[in-house]
Design goal:
Strand content: 5-15%
CATH topology of the largest domain: Heat Shock Protein 90
Helix content: 40-55%
CATH architecture of the largest domain: 2-Layer Sandwich
Structural class: alpha+beta
Number of strands: 11
Shape: elongated
Largest sheet: 5 strands, mixed
Oligomer: single chain
Order of helices and strands: HHHHEHEHHEEHHHEHEEHEEHEE
Length: 457
């Protein structure tokens, strides 16, 4: 029993079914309330002015016709959702309402003047109240859910009571069907929006949680909340993240072991070359290049699985501090913010990301490096711009691949391992950010790092 109740309250299927049933129940209740109450009085207030001439004419006919013709006159008037009957006194609840009387006497026929000076009272009645006011025979022509009741005192003291539909249009079948169709269309639209909200809201929450966690934070898990179907998906995603985390850690351990063994060999080689200074001088650049390559390989392996704990970092303050401490002159354009864009990240890894971009701009640029940072409509971006030759459009993605260098020399000035941009992108991905390159219209290359507003804490 408990599990069934839990399923009913947490399943999307159950929620959609409950919303559908509840929506139709609400529609039924609203329709029933409409029938029980004269609520259409405020929706179609034209009933009095539409019928003023016919009311005045019927009063004149009843007063000026033989008594034996009264049933035929009343029967001829009934129809189109309206009815009429003659009673001895005013029904309880009817009142003399000056504003309604004024509306009644505003008819476009001269016959309406015959109602002036008479005792006229007004009221409203639901279909449950109409049998109390009119005989069954008189109600056969009533098709409206509620009705205006207008009672006029005749010259002989009797009361002529009218039951009018809220508008003459309600007495016409096509117009009533059109009105009902529009009501059902509106209800279907509202129900569709409600169902979409029920189904999409948990998916948006899942998207937000996944965005906040970040692709490389395999030790973190997405919260298993929401409907049953969504929790199953989240559990599967968390299991997949755990497997990916194991693969990443295994790759890191393999690279670390290789780096350790190679570094040990390089150390021994240096020790054996100490006795041969001229040979050592020739081999030292190659040894340093190998050591740099090993360091970058290890950094790349660890970039997507940062071991350091996350901390709150204000990106604007971080970029300003980075520029102040940089040994390379930077033209910083970061206007002050009233509130910083704070994310959870690895301070050391983020520093390496931007240092790699700045170093890349220094290496291949023309001396001037611009650092532009600030919020955007959908997040926060940092651009590292240079005024160098730029890159061919078909190479803007290729340079992010490991060991990919468009400058093929191994000189100490421009040479490198070809992993700087790859490491930068891996770190960006580990923080849920994206990094792209594009050629500037005024010349040079711009590296854009964008942090989605979903990452803001």
């Amino acid at each position: 029993m408990t599990s069934a109740i839990r399923w009913l309250t947490s399943s999307i299927v159950a929620q959609v079914a409950a919303l559908t049933v509840g929506g139709f129940a609400a529609l039924f209740v609203a329709a029933f309330a409409l029938v029980l109450t004269p609520s259409l009085e405020w929706v179609f207030p034209r009933a009095l002015s539409d019928n003023s001439a016919s009311i005045a004419e019927l009063v004149w006919l009843i007063e000026n016709s033989p008594a034996e013709l009264e049933p035929f006159i009343l029967s001829a008037y009934r129809g189109g959702g309206r009815t009429v009957a003659i009673t001895g006194e005013f029904s309880a609840g009817l009142q003399a309402r000056p504003k309604l009387r004024e509306k009644l006497e505003q008819g476009h026929s001269d016959v309406a003047a015959r109602l002036q000076g008479r005792d006229i009272r007004f009221g409203t009645a639901s279909f449950l109240e109409l049998p109390r006011l009119f005989e069954p025979e008189a109600l056969q022509s009533v098709s409206a859910a509620s009705a205006y009741v207008v009672a006029v005192r005749l010259e002989d003291g009797r009361v002529l009571s009218f039951a009018l539909p809220p508008s003459s249009m309600l007495g016409r079948g096509r117009a009533g069907a059109l009105l009902g169709g529009l009501g059902l269309l509106f209800f279907a639209l509202a129900l569709s929006l409600a169902l979409a909200s029920v189904m999409l809201r948990p998916l948006r929450n899942l998207e937000r949680d996944a965005e906040r966690v970040g692709l490389a934070e395999t030790t973190s898990i997405i919260s298993e909340t929401g409907p049953i179907e969504l929790r199953r998906i989240v559990r599967a995603l968390n299991r997949m993240r755990a497997r990916l985390g194991g693969l990443i850690r295994e790759r890191e351990q393999i690279v670390a072991a290789i780096a350790h063994d190679v570094r040990t060999g390089l150390t021994r080689l240096r020790l054996r070359l100490d006795a041969h200074e001229h040979v050592a001088a020739e081999l030292e650049p190659d040894l340093r290049q190998m050591e740099l390559l090993i360091t970058d390989m290890l950094a790349y392996a660890r970039a997507e699985s940062p071991a350091a704990s996350r901390e709150l970092i204000g990106l604007h303050a971080f970029i300003v501090s980075l520029a102040e401490q940089s040994p390379i002159a930077l033209d910083v354009q970061a206007p002050p913010l009233t509130e910083d864009f704070v994310i959870a990240g690895d301070h050391v890894a983020l520093r390496r990301l931007f240092e790699n971009l700045v170093e890349n701009a220094r290496r291949y640029g023309d001396g001037e490096i611009r650092l532009v940072a600030g919020p955007t409509e959908d997040g926060f971006e940092v651009c590292v711009e240079d005024n160098g030759p730029g890159l061919p459009e078909d190479k803007l993605e290729e340079v992010f691949e490991p060991f990919r260098r468009l400058e093929t020399s191994r000189s100490r000035v421009t040479g490198g391992s070809g992993m700087g941009l790859g490491i930068a992108r891996a770190i960006a991905r580990a923080h849920g950010a994206t990094i792209t390159l594009h050629n500037r219209s005024e010349g040079g290359l711009a590296a854009r790092v964008w942090f989605s507003k979903a990452l803001r804490t």
